[in-house]
Structures are given as structure tokens and as C-alpha cells.
Design a protein that fits this description.
Order of helices and strands of chain A: EHEEHEHEEHEEHEEEH
CATH superfamily of chain A: Class I glutamine amidotransferase (GATase) domain
Largest interface: A-B, 30 and 33 residues
Helix content of chain B: 25-40%
CATH architecture of the domain at 1-41 and 191-368 in chain B: Alpha-Beta Complex
Strand content of chain A: 15-25%
CATH superfamily of the domain at 1-41 and 191-368 in chain B: PurM-like C-terminal domain
Strand content of chain B: 15-25%
CATH architecture of chain A: 3-Layer(aba) Sandwich
Structural class of chain A: alpha/beta
Shape of chain A: globular
CATH topology of chain A: Rossmann fold
Largest sheet of chain B: 7 strands, mixed
Distance between the termini of chain A: 13 Å
Oligomer: heterodimer
Largest sheet of chain A: 9 strands, mixed
Helix content of chain A: 10-25%
Number of strands of chain A: 11
Structural class of chain B: alpha+beta
């Protein structure tokens, strides 16, 4: 298993993401934003931070990075892609995920532990002949059952998930809602408590809270590690023997 | 009278200092030279009123890797790694423009740490404002907290702790002290001394503009007064994205061994960084201002030399390595320009192309400033406002008509006192988890704990300084600040390695602030010697006065300690229902300087002299007990006394508690002193009764229930836990109140 973690000028959480990937399985490498070469990478993480300073609008500049062209190609090929926080914003800006992230309702950056509830069908239920290499659900969700609660830190100033109502209805109907904030944990004002979504095919996942910061019992919780382990297991199973 | 006389005064130089400059140059200084001298001879850069005092501090220790004089101090944490740390003030810029002032305060302290080759891993802040019911204070608080968050969050360094006090004397002159901690491989650390005649001087990072001109002399080295809005142009503007690129670029340059030396551009910009590099290396430097990348084309040489534009670094590079250095700067999309050369002339020469526009001996510029003796005099009486009006305001802010005679109401009022109440509102605006090192987040324990997998252990950091108590008695109050840090470290099982400080005082040219400074430095020296903790660096911020007079004398002390196992750390909250609660340490609380005394408007001079050695022994016992897993929680008894400590440990746990304070009564305390009196040396522990008794702690009661129940003679009280929590959490709404 080889992970690629993008690095933009202004990325903050890329080393933590690298560490989380390696803790789950295999080898992880940083991909410089100017590189179009994702050669040999099985899964991609677009990490948190403030890419290019997030001036103009969060993720608005990073989506044009050469590395993002390569990520779009990988995503189109069905490979697992995870966007965390700023990475989620970048994937939305790039059109790889639906919706947008707006400034928090309280207009303040907030860092705190949040409870998430996993949603939708599990990969086992959705895996099928049209996606033989994986399931149609994100590999990062492979080890997590619908209804399970995860405790993970969130930290952002622009995390209010927004999409038009018709789009939200569609996302719900398609099973594209990956995580919602538990009652009392939607501090940013996200519509319908949405914390994370997938693309239509299911292989691209974005969420505002930081699973890479929940991989060590000493620093809070290990619930985030389950996303990385899930992806490692799914990719491992799909790889030719 | 010549025009220059007026000009040098305007720049903050005295007539005799100006005469001395003329003497050292053997001629009249021109505009460029005068501007440069005025900055490097300011209090901010030359420490001319404080340097003599600072010589009293102990700076030696077997774990010290870098001591005072470098960009940051550093201590050995084992396995070839060192932890670098420094605190610096950005008080006056924050008082004029809190968001940018605080943001650039963080930016500046980060640069100090990565300038020595350490990767910043944590930020802490020590903030002081006027009372919370003042619209100005809430404006400054909001701006400073947003500014700190903006810079620290954007650059990806965790803000893991700090403290905020609200006191009337900071109304006009708030304090913003920022601390950065960095981690480095000891052998890869770099010093700031320029070396190698013929080597190239490279300016990296942001371009140079007109922001922050005269910041060190005009803002930092004079009292605040009317019309400070006009000083806004002297406040710098921060760009954390630029700093993030410069930081990564510098660390990569150092890792590849491409730099001879590195220095940040802080106060006094190019003037001080070039001057200090040349002075430390015993060399000269020629700088060509025509080669400095500018934001505005028509800048004068003196403006370029004194600009405090942020996010800039100065490096000395061997000529053969220059192309590689410039290429790496390009990779990180940050600026770079060859602007000068190291010479053997002993001169700082400023060129504009071929024209020499300034030429000064390094020695005169950097080390030539006269050092002054203070003229301290103890004030005859308490010099701070302490009217009933203040008590009334504090009581009103604390929730209305609490009768100070009713102990439960008094406890509620103290829990709601802004300096004691939870600072969740502030610290949740900071990223405290980035970097994956934060074992104890803010308010989880008495000290921040950061794991260091590289070194196989962890460090703990505490920052403290109760200006009100120092105002009551500067010597004892400063000792208390050091002891509180030591106690906080002990609570998480850490042993002190080193200390840094920021001395925030009033105008040292006046007798009372001079006396406070003199006494405080003596207290700092005594406490550090007794604890065996070296002072590895420090910063001095003087002239902190508003129209109403000086601030409380505020030595902010920051201590870094080491603990072997990050899994063996005690939190400050009770851990389990049914655990015993115990008091430990040489704790003899008194009303002097306490929150209760403030609440009642009865503040007066005087504090009992702490027994440093007894506290040191208690710290060692607690530290070992925590490391051995013998206590389930440990909390230092501080502001608001034992009753507040009990409430804090209970609220954090979500369990009530019962405690009988009879053991303190037996030490001679009145019921009220036992509840709310303050002093050093007290620890509130919880855990198995036998374990607590085995270390000599006195069991007071046990954890459990839904009330805080404290027996203290005729002052016994019962308070529902939920009500206590509501008071303690009340800052969330009150800080948000719109002016």
C-alpha cells in the first residue's frame, strides 16, 4: 500500500496525515503541489491547512495546482481519495465533491472534539461488479458501519457545509452523506448537520473534522485511524495477489 | 539650535545620547545613521535600563544548549534533541491595533525559534486586559485572540496553553506576550553570528514596505497616551502564509547545510539583524539598499533600513552555495535577494548602488548605547486604584448582588471572576492539536504536555505571572510566579529544565516602576537559584503606562520541563467517583493580594514571603507520585484558593465532591482563609486514600455526588455542581458581548 499526501504551500496537517497513513499500513509519501506524478500511489489524501494562504477563498487557488489534475484523473479511475478540512474545500472547489464550505455560522474559528455519526450503506452492501477493484463506497468508510459514532477533533473557520436543497435531497437519496454531526456537535451551522460527503461514485470522500488527529490514544482518540485502516484493508483486498 | 536636535528627540534619543553618537562617529550623523542609532539605542533593542539587573539571573545548567543572547534559549531533551523556547511581548502594537499586534507578536516569536534551526511545535500566550465590563477591554481581547488564532492556526503550529487576566491597570496598556517552543536536532542548530569575510548576505521572505517604521523606538519604548491612533502605521501587518513558506524554506536550507548563519528581522528590521549578526561575529557588513526588494519604489534608504515589514529573514551564505539557496527560495515561492557581503571592516556600511549613505562602527551601533542605573524608590503607599467603584464593577460583572458574606455566593462570584473563569471561549479559537503532540489540551491539566516521539519522552510547559500579587510585593510576587510554574509542572509529573521570562513593567525612569523591576528581578533570581532552574533567555517590555499610570508589574515566567512517559500524566480534573481528595504541600493561605480581596476592594501592599525550599520539596514529591501513577489528579491551588480549586477539579470531571477544610483550620486559617485564601505550595490531589496518605497528603474528603460541599466551620457551603459550572463557563457569553 502506497499513500500519497499532497503538500501545498500553506498546508498544515500534511505530516500528521502522513503519520496516520503509515500507522494504518504501508508507506506514505508527500506529493509536491507542482508535481503531476502520482506514480504508484494507491490512495490520495488532500490534507488540512491553508493552501496558498486560503486567500481569495479556501481551496480556490489550490484546485488549479498541477497535482490536482493528477488527483482528478485518479479519482476518475476510481481510486480512493480523502479530503480533510482544507482538502475537503479543495475537492469541492475542484468539482470532485458536491457542495461548498462557507464561513462558520458564528464567524469564528473553532477547535474542539466532535462526535460524528456514520451514515449510508457499508461497502460490503454496495460493492458490486461495476466497481470490482473496490466498492462504490469510499474505501475510507470500509470499516465503519452506518450509525456508528466517532469522536474526532474539528478545527476550522470555514466549515459550514452548503448545497442547494435539491442537491442535498439528491445526495441523501444517493447515499452520498458520509458523516453527520451528532446532536449538539454541529457548531459551524452545516446544513442538515452534514460533516462529510462522497462523490457520486463513492470513491472520493471529504470531511471537515480531522481523522488524522485521532490516531493515538495519548492525544485524544483513535477513531480516526479506522478510516485509514479501512482504506488499507479495502485496497489490500482489491490488489492482485 | 540645529534641526538635528529636534529630530533626535523625536526619534527617542536624549541629548546626551546624541552627543555620544557624535563623539563616536567624530561627526554629525546623517539621517540614515541617526534613524539606525535611534532604534538600536532604544530600550527595546539595547535594554539600557534593564541589562545591569539581568546579570543577577542564573543562566548555567547542565541541560542548557543555548543561553541568553541567542534568538531563543534551548535545553537538551535527550537522544540528540533540544527544545528551544522564548517569550516576547507585543504589548504596545496590540494596544493600538490588537488583531495585527497580536498576530505579528506570534509571527515574530516563531521566527526567533526557527532562526536557530528549530521547528516550532507549540505556542502559548499570556494576555492581560482591563476589566471585562469595559468595551475597550473586550475589543482588545477579541482582536488579540483572533490575531493569535489567525497567525498560529494558519501556520500550523498548535496553541496549547496560556493565561488571561483582567485587571483595571491594564485598561489602557494591555499585555500580549507570545511564547514559542521548537524542537531541533542539537547538532543542526545554528547561531546568529555572521562569519566568513566575503560571504554573501541574503535577505529572504517578504518584500520591504513602509509598515512598522519606528516600531521599536516610537511604540515600544515610550508610554502610551492620547492620539495613539496616529501610531497605527507603526504597527506591522502579518502574513502567516508568507511566514509558513519562509519557515519551511529556512528549515530545508538548514537541513541541507546551506547557511552559515541565520537571523530573523524583528524590531528595527534590517538595522538590528545586520547589526547583531555583525556584532556577534566580530565582522563588518556592507548592505546595498538598492538590492532590497521593495513594496513601494520610492522608499528612502533610512526607511528600508528601519522598516519592520514582517516575514523576513537574513542569512549569511558562502558564495558557492548562493545559487542553491536562491533556487530553494524559489521552490517555496518566497523572495530572496543578495543584498550584501561580510567584510573585515568592523563597519556597518549602507550603500545605495555605488553611493555610501551610512557608515558606522558596529561596536558603536550595537554595543555603544550607555547602560543606565535605575533610581528605584519604594512607593510610600499602594499606588494602584482600588476604590469601591472597582469592587462594585467586579461584583456586577460576576453576576450581580452576590453578598460577599455568604460563602456559596462568594464561591460563585469567584468562579465567574473573569481572571478565574474558564477561558474556553479563547482557546477553542486556537488549533491545539496540529502536530500530533498535544497530550493535554488547554484546561486539561495544569501544564501543557507535548509528546516528543523523536526523543522518546515528553515536555510540559507552563506560563504564569499574577501582576496583582506582584504589585502587592514585587519580590515575593515574582517568586510566587516561578513557584506556580514549578507546581504546574509537578502536577503533570515534569521536572523543570529551563525558564524564560518577559518582564512587563512601567517606565523605568520613574522611581516606583524602577523599584518594582529591581525587586522583581531579585525575586526571579532567588527563586531560580533555589529551584536550580537556569534562565535561558528573556525579554523586557518597559514603558507600559497609560494616562492613569503604570500597569501592574508583570513578570511573565515560562518554564519547560521534561517527563519520561507521556502516558503517566495527571489531569487537573478528578478522575473517578469514590476517590479520596487530599491536600498536600506547605500551604498557608492568606487574604493578601487574593481574588477575594480584589472582589471586596480591599487590596493593599504586602504578601507573605514564600518558603521556596519547602515548595521545591513538595514539587518533587508530587512529581514522583504522578510519574508512579499514585495520584489520579493533581491541581495547583492558585487564584481563588482551595474552594475554587475544588470546584475546578469537580467541574472538569463532571462529579461533585465533599471536603472538610479542618486541616487548614488547624494551621491557623480562619474559615474564610481556608476557603478562599491564596498562597504558594498547595496541591489538590485525588486518588486512592492509601496512596495519598503514603506520600503524606492530608485527606479532606471524597469525589462524588452532584454538589460541591465544603465544610469550613461557620462558612460551610453547598453548591450544585451545575450552578458552579454555569458561573465558571460564563465567560463564553460575556466575552462575546457587543460593545
Amino acid at each position: 500500500m502506497i499513500w500519497g499526501v499532497l503538500q501545498f504551500p500553506g498546508s498544515c496537517d500534511e505530516r500528521d496525515a502522513l503519520h496516520a497513513c503509515e500507522l494504518a499500513a504501508g508507506e506514505a509519501r508527500l506529493i509536491w503541489h507542482e508535481s503531476r506524478d502520482l506514480d504508484g500511489v494507491d490512495a490520495v489524501v488532500v490534507p488540512g491547512g491553508f493552501s496558498y494562504g486560503d486567500y481569495l477563498r479556501a481551496g480556490a487557488v489550490a484546485r488549479f495546482a498541477p497535482a490536482m489534475e493528477a488527483v482528478a484523473e485518479m479519482a476518475a479511475g476510481g481510486a480512493p481519495v480523502l479530503g480533510i478540512c482544507n482538502g475537503f474545500q479543495v475537492l469541492c472547489e475542484a468539482g470532485l465533491l458536491p457542495g461548498a464550505l462557507l464561513r462558520n455560522a458564528e464567524l469564528r474559528f473553532r477547535c474542539h472534539q466532535v462526535e460524528l455519526i456514520a451514515e449510508g450503506a457499508s461497502s460490503a452492501e454496495l460493492g458490486g461488479p461495476e466497481h470490482p477493484q473496490l466498492s462504490s463506497r469510499s474505501a475510507f468508510l470500509a470499516g465503519i458501519k452506518p450509525g456508528e459514532r466517532l469522536s474526532i477533533p474539528a478545527k476550522h473557520g470555514e466549515g459550514r457545509y452548503y448545497a442547494p436543497d435539491e442537491m442535498l435531497d439528491q445526495l441523501e437519496a444517493n447515499g452520498q452523506i458520509a458523516f453527520r454531526y451528532a446532536d449538539g456537535h454541529n457548531s459551524n451551522g452545516s446544513q442538515r448537520d452534514i460533516a462529510g460527503v462522497t462523490n457520486d461514485a463513492g470513491n472520493v470522500l471529504g470531511l471537515m473534522p480531522h481523522p488524522e488527529h485521532a490516531v493515538d490514544p495519548l492525544t485524544g482518540s483513535t477513531d480516526g485511524l479506522r478510516l485509514f485502516r479501512g482504506a488499507a484493508a479495502a485496497v489490500g483486498e482489491a490488489a492482485p495477489a | 539650535m540645529s534641526v538635528e536636535i529636534a529630530k533626535h528627540r523625536e526619534l527617542g534619543l536624549t541629548d546626551s545620547e546624541f552627543e555620544l553618537i557624535r563623539e563616536k562617529l567624530g561627526r554629525e550623523p546623517n539621517d540614515v545613521e541617526l534613524a539606525m542609532f535611534s532604534l538600536l539605542w532604544s530600550e527595546h533593542c539595547a535594554y539600557k535600563h534593564s541589562r545591569k539587573l539581568l546579570g543577577r539571573l542564573p543562566t548555567e545548567g547542565e541541560r542548557v544548549v543555548m543561553g541568553p543572547g541567542e534568538n531563543a534559549g534551548a535545553v537538551d531533551v535527550g537522544n540528540g534533541y533540544a527544545v528551544a523556547f522564548k517569550v516576547e511581548s507585543h504589548n504596545h502594537p496590540s494596544a493600538v491595533e490588537p488583531f495585527e499586534g497580536a498576530a505579528t507578536g506570534v509571527g515574530g516569536i516563531l521566527r526567533d525559534v526557527f532562526a536557530i534551526g528549530a521547528r516550532p511545535i507549540a505556542i502559548l500566550d499570556s494576555l492581560r486586559f482591563g476589566e471585562l465590563d469595559s468595551a475597550r477591554s473586550r475589543h482588545l481581547l477579541d482582536g488579540a485572540v483572533r490575531g493569535i488564532g489567525h497567525y498560529g492556526n494558519s501556520i500550523g503550529v498548535a496553541t496549547v496553553g496560556g493565561e488571561i487576566y483582567f485587571e483595571e491597570p491594564y485598561e489602557h496598556n494591555c499585555l500580549v506576550n507570545a511564547m514559542c517552543i521548537g524542537l531541533a536536532k542539537t547538532e543542526e542548530m545554528v547561531r546568529a553570528a555572521a562569519a566568513g569575510v566575503g560571504n554573501t548576505v541574503v535577505l529572504m521572505g517578504a518584500s520591504t514596505g513602509r509598515d512598522g517604521i519606528g516600531g521599536a523606538s516610537v511604540l515600544a519604548s515610550a508610554e502610551l497616551g492620547e492620539g495613539d491612533e496616529a501610531k497605527r502605521p507603526t504597527v506591522q501587518i502579518g502574513d502567516p502564509f508568507e511566514e509558513s513558506k519562509v519557515l519551511e524554506c529556512c528549515l530545508e536550507l538548514l537541513e541541507k547545510g546551506l547557511l552559515v548563519s541565520l537571523q530573523d528581522l524583528g524590531a528595527a528590521g534590517l538595522t538590528s539583524s545586520a547589526g547583531e549578526m555583525a556584532s556577534a561575529g566580530g565582522v563588518g557588513i556592507d548592505l546595498d539598499v538598492a538590492k532590497v526588494p521593495l513594496r513601494e519604489a520610492d522608499m528612502e534608504p533610512f526607511e528600508i533600513m528601519v522598516s519592520e515589514s514582517q516575514e523576513r529573514m537574513l542569512a549569511v551564505v558562502e558564495p558557492a552555495k548562493v545559487p542553491e539557496v536562491l533556487a530553494l527560495c524559489e521552490k517555496w515561492q518566497t523572495g530572496s535577494a543578495e543584498i550584501g557581503v561580510v567584510t573585515d571592516s568592523g563597519l556597518i556600511r549602507i550603500l545605495r548602488g555605488a553611493e555610501v549613505v551610512g557608515e558606522m562602527p558596529v561596536e558603536a551601533l550595537v554595543d555603544g548605547c550607555p547602560l543606565y542605573d535605575l533610581q528605584p524608590a519604594e512607593p510610600a503607599s499602594w499606588i494602584y486604584g482600588n476604590a469601591d467603584v472597582l469592587a462594585e464593577r467586579v461584583r456586577a460583572a460576576a453576576g450581580g448582588d452576590a453578598s460577599p458574606q455568604d460563602p456559596a455566593a462568594t464561591l460563585l462570584a469567584l468562579l465567574a471572576a473573569p481572571s478565574i473563569a474558564s477561558k474556553r471561549w479563547a482557546f477553542e479559537q486556537y488549533d491545539s492539536v496540529v502536530g500530533s503532540r498535544t497530550v493535554k489540551r488547554p484546561e486539561g491539566a495544569d501544564a501543557a504536555v507535548l509528546q516528543l516521539p523523536e526523543a522518546g519522552n515528553a515536555i510540559a510547559v507552563s506560563i504564569d505571572g499574577n501582576g496583582r500579587r506582584v504589585a502587592c510585593e514585587p519580590h515575593a510576587g515574582t517568586i510566587e510566579a516561578v513557584l506556580e510554574c514549578a507546581q504546574n509542572l509537578a502536577c503533570v509529573g515534569a521536572e523543570p529544565l529551563g525558564l524564560t521570562n518577559c518582564l512587563n513593567f512601567g517606565n523605568p525612569e520613574k522611581p516606583a516602576p524602577a523599584w518594582q523591576l529591581d525587586r522583581a528581578v531579585s525575586g526571579l533570581a532567588e527563586a531560580c537559584k533555589a529551584l536550580g532552574v537556569p534562565v535561558v533567555g528573556g525579554n523586557v517590555s518597559l514603558y507600559n503606562e497609560g494616562p492613569e499610570g503604570p500597569i501592574y508589574p508583570t513578570p511573565v515566567v515560562a518554564m519547560v520541563g521534561e517527563l519520561p512517559d507521556p502516558a503517566q500524566v495527571a489531569g487537573s480534573a478528578f478522575a473517578r467517583e469514590g476517590d479520596a481528595i487530599a491536600l498536600f504541600g506547605p500551604f498557608s493561605p492568606t487574604p493578601h493580594g487574593s481574588e477575594l480581596t480584589k472582589l471586596r476592594g480591599e487590596l493593599a501592599a504586602g504578601l507573605p514571603e514564600p518558603d521556596v525550599n519547602a515548595v521545591a520539596v513538595a514539587c518533587a514529591t508530587v512529581r514522583e507520585a504522578v510519574r508512579a501513577g499514585r495520584v489520579a489528579s493533581a491541581h495547583d491551588i492558585s487564584d481563588g484558593g482551595l474552594a475554587v480549586a475544588l470546584a475546578e477539579s469537580a467541574i472538569g470531571a463532571g462529579f461533585g465532591c465533599r471536603a472538610d477544610l479542618q486541616p487548614l483550620r488547624e494551621r491557623g486559617c480562619s474559615p474564610e482563609e481556608a476557603l478562599f485564601g491564596e498562597g504558594t505550595g498547595g496541591f489538590l490531589l485525588s486518588g486512592a486514600r492509601a496512596e495519598l496518605e503514603a506520600i503524606g497528603a492530608v485527606v479532606l474528603g471524597e469525589v462524588g455526588g452532584e454538589t460541591i460541599e465544603i465544610a469550613a466551620g461557620d462558612h460551610s457551603l453547598i453548591l450544585p455542581l451545575a450552578e458552579a459550572e454555569r458561573a465558571w463557563r460564563s465567560l463564553d457569553e460575556r466575552a462575546e458581548a457587543v460593545a
